[in-house]
Amino acid sequence: MTVSVEDTYSYLSPRFQALGLDFLADRLEAWEIEKPDRAWLDKRIAGVIEMAEQSGLQYLGWTWEPRDRQPIAASDITVINNRSLTR
């Protein structure tokens, strides 16, 4: 079975747009050009978490990727280890 990630998640584009974010359905990534501060993060992240919950999704994190230095990231990703040591 072939499934298009872009087709499956394209319905989210207008929801992210309502938050002022661009969204690439094929990469499951939303972004904007911003220099974040604490107030911006508090406002932005709360809106994204709420939208994700309403859409049956889970918020996993963000990155700030400045042009002149290393990216800064925050994530809440559950790592599942499906490796079996008894094979």
Structure description:
By secondary structure, the protein is α+β, with helices and mostly antiparallel strands. The chain has one domain (5-75). Helices cover 32% and strands 16% of the residues. The protein is built from 3 helices and 4 strands, in the order H-H-E-E-H-E-E. The chain has helices at residues 5-9, 13-18, 38-54; strands at residues 22-24, 29-31, 61-64, 72-75. The strands form 2 sheets. A two-stranded antiparallel ribbon has the order 1-2. A two-stranded antiparallel ribbon has the order 3-4. A hairpin with a 7-residue loop joins strand 3 (61-64) and strand 4 (72-75). The radius of gyration is 16 Å and the shape is globular. The model has no long low-confidence stretch (mean pLDDT 81).
What's the structural blueprint in terms of helices and strands?
Layout: H1 5-9, H2 13-18, E1 22-24, E2 29-31, H3 38-54, E3 61-64, E4 72-75
Antiparallel strand pairs: 1-2, 3-4
| Poorly predicted runs of 5 or more residues | none
> Whole-number radius of gyration?
16 Å
Write down the overall geometry. globular
Q: Structural class of the secondary structure composition?
A: alpha+beta
User: Based on the structure, what is the oligomeric state of the protein chains?
Assistant: single chain
Largest sheet report: 2 strands, antiparallel
DSSP, total strands? 4
Biggest sheet, strands in spatial order?
1-2
Q: For the terminal residues, how far apart are their CA atoms?
A: 28 Å
Average pLDDT figure? 81
Order of helices and strands: HHEEHEE
Beta-strand content bin: 15-25%
How many separate domains?
A: 1
